[in-house]
Amino acid sequence: MVSAPTRRPRNLAGWVGKLIVAALVVAVWEASVRLWLPDYLPTPSGVVRAAWPTLISADFGKAFGDTISGVAAGLLIGCLAGTALGLATGRLPWLRYLTSPYLSGLYAMPMLAIVPMATIWLGYSSQTRLAVIALSAFLPCAVSTGDGARNVPSQLRETAKVLRLSRVRFVLDVLLPSTLPFVVAGVQVAVGRALVGAVAVEFLASLPGLGTFILTNARSFEQNTAFVAVFVLAVLGIAARAGTETALHRLMPWHLHVNR
Amino acid sequence: MELDGLTMRFGERTVSRDIHLTLDPGRVLAIVGPSGCGKTTLLRAVAGLIQPAVGTVRIDGQAVTRTPEGVAMVFQHFGLFPWKTVEANVAYALRVSGVPKKAALERARELIRLVGLVGFEKSYPHQLSGGMQQRTGLARALAVRPRLLLMDEPFGALDAQTREVLQFEMLRIWQDHPVTMLFVTHSIDEAVLFGDQIAVLNGRPSGIAELIDVSLPQPRDRSVLATAEFLAIRERVWNLIMTGQRD
């Protein structure tokens, strides 16, 4: 008999390596600005010094709130609608046939291309941001979930038939769990695209938010402050990614083993 | 169970032609033949997973159009739900056939004991070896007390050693809990070991070369492998398959 599974030990050497690389990057950055480059460029030490005052400032707080609430609402709408459509297209071949040119076409298109028009349709308002974010999130969710729902492994479909599962049972007990990893993959892509969409709309439509915060500070040579906001965005992206990864491993330890 | 003049086709290609077979309750029929002879296709027709081009499969007199009630199957690829634990996989088969939750879990535990998986109830399939996954598949199939058990090369995806261990364990389990069984395999040893009767398929499209009655006494165990009768039947099946290959 095989012994019960054990957890993979943390790789200490790997972490040390990562820290060394990070230290090198920071050192080269700092040194090159101080030695050769104009002093209005941001430096790691400058960013660190600017970090706390920026993070507690009212301007930043408002910008952060604006962007995050837009991203959260847009993601919620886009991911729910996209996942629902994805499940439907996965199960209904005619719906897939009718929608796939639009889905794959829009998925491939940079969403920023529609922002100038969207600002005219919806105004220079947070509705434009919401719409762009929701659409940016909708597409990857619809495409990924559709792929998953369409490709329930044949082995599992056979098992379902032999177990004489009803349609409802099949959808709830086989289709949904086997598609779940694809839903999560869709959401992961959606989060990234939503952040990009939010910042881009703010740039292009001058909406209050982190994008505009960065733009304004950068143009007034407060690049260290601008960089704090850039890092906040990066951390948000990383945190969302790490969060979904952790959820995947905790709640679906089997997610890599849905054979296809 | 009765196969009445079954012809199976894949598109234009006829895989097997005019197969007649009967399996009486309590007996084991083994279907053996070279790979690609359509034995799994026959089994899938019995399970109602595909429809024959000509002929009918009947189980207890009823023509099969989808998997009939009381028919369980053990797949070569195990067919376990990756998101369910061993226990949940076994219990699920019972739950969907209407067994209440508590009774299903109790029966699942009983079967897990029977197939030697105690301690792995909460493990997921991907945490188990192939042999242990197939033990789970076996437990799931037996849990519902099927009136007909379909075995589709159940040990075909396992390494040689695991395969042998599981064969004899299955033999032991079958002796304690006899069940009508249709056993498809390309292993001649397996066919002789399990079958009361062996249908040898050969040719293209394949037909039944011969139906061999296996008069080896029950219960059988590993010692059967060395008996003169086992070897004689084995040799006969081998020759039949080889004759077909030369055609």
From TrEMBL, chain A:
This is ABC transporter permease. GO terms for biological process: transmembrane transport. One of its GO terms (cellular component) is plasma membrane. PROSITE patterns: ABC_TM1. Belongs to the binding-protein-dependent transport system permease family. Pfam families: BPD_transp_1 (PF00528). Its main location: membrane. Residues 64-244 form the ABC transmembrane type-1 domain.
From TrEMBL, chain B:
CDD domains: ABC_NrtD_SsuB_transporters (cd03293). InterPro entries: AAA+_ATPase, ABC_transporter-like_ATP-bd, ABC_transporter_ATP-bind, P-loop_NTPase. The keyword Transport applies. GO terms for molecular function: ATP binding; ATP hydrolysis activity. It holds the Pfam family ABC_tran. SMART domains: AAA. Residues 1-228 form the ABC transporter domain. Coiled coil: none annotated. Keywords: ATP-binding, Nucleotide-binding, Transport. PANTHER family: ALIPHATIC SULFONATES IMPORT ATP-BINDING PROTEIN SSUB (PTHR42788:SF13), TAURINE IMPORT ATP-BINDING PROTEIN-RELATED (PTHR42788). This is ABC transporter ATP-binding protein. It comes from Phytohabitans flavus.
